[in-house]
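Chapter review: from sequence to fold.
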Amino acid sequence: MSAEEKRGLYVVGRESVVEARRMLGFDPQADVFLVGRGLLLPVNMFSNRKIYALREEAEAIGVGDKVGEGLELVDAATMIDILLQHQIYNFS
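The token string follows.
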């Protein structure tokens, strides 16, 4: 799969959510990967998208069992697979 065929994946931290949401408006097919304090954001900010986060990071900041519906927690190996399947836009 070439870069032109890959879906976008926006890596979003809490500090960059405004810029990321603005850019997501131009890319309705993109997915979101929350990092750091971005895990504290309400997932409905990114409606109609696949939303991922690293399970280990969620557990480390104490939200592992409190994540919102629609947020998929993944392990490190799955995260690598997701990153390789997407065109990455880093807003973290």
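Two observations follow directly from the output. The mean pLDDT is 89. Residues 20 and 91 are 6 Å apart (CA to CA).
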